[in-house]
Amino acid sequence: MDCSTVSVDIDSYSTNLSQSHPRAKKEHRCGECRKTIAKGEVYLREVNIHDGRVMTDKTCQACVGIRNEFFKDGYYYGQVIDMLYEHVHEVSGDISEACLVSLPAGSREKVLGILEEFWGDYEDDE
Ligand SMILES: [Zn+2]
Predict the structure, then answer these.
(1) Per DSSP, which regions of the chain are E strands?
(2) DSSP tag of 56
(3) Which of 15, 35, 86, 122 could form a disulfide with 49 if both were Cys (CB 3.0 to 4.6 A apart)?
(4) Ligand 1 centroid vs 28 CA: distance in angstroms?
């Protein structure tokens, strides 16, 4: 609940046609983090219209958690992880403990991974 909202300038909108949370019958790839959604894993399946084209977007639960906590103003499909990475740089890695605690476990791991990478870069600069 205490995660800062990533500011995103939204100037194009996608139309959502359907949303479901099926259990994967075969492997899929998450459209955000590009990780494999394993067979048997529940994921978010959306049918959207992007720029007049109908597309099926599949997102893993960890990325859905990140969208819910950090992107309250909206997001662009496929850019959530990159935008979160930029956000971490903008706030100099200052993501509150309360925020990390409020994230679902899978999402927290991803955010911690980004933070670790950030602090790693930071140390390299010195
Ligand atoms: Zn993902």
Answers:
(1) 15-20, 28-29, 36-37, 43-50, 53-60
(2) E
(3) 15
(4) 10
Give the distance (Å) from ligand 1 centre to CA of residue 126: 32
pLDDT by 10-residue block (mean), the chain, 126 residues: 84 93 98 98 97 96 97 94 96 94 95 94 65
Q: Report CA(70)–ligand 1 centroid distance (Å).
A: 14
What global pTM score does this model have?
A: 0.90
Report the separation in Å between the CA atom of 122 and the middle of ligand 1, taken as the mean of its atom positions: 25
Query: At residue 19, what is the residue type?
Result: Q
Architecture of 15-125 per CATH? 2-Layer Sandwich (3.30)
* CA neighbor of 66 nearest in space, from 44, 94, 92: 44
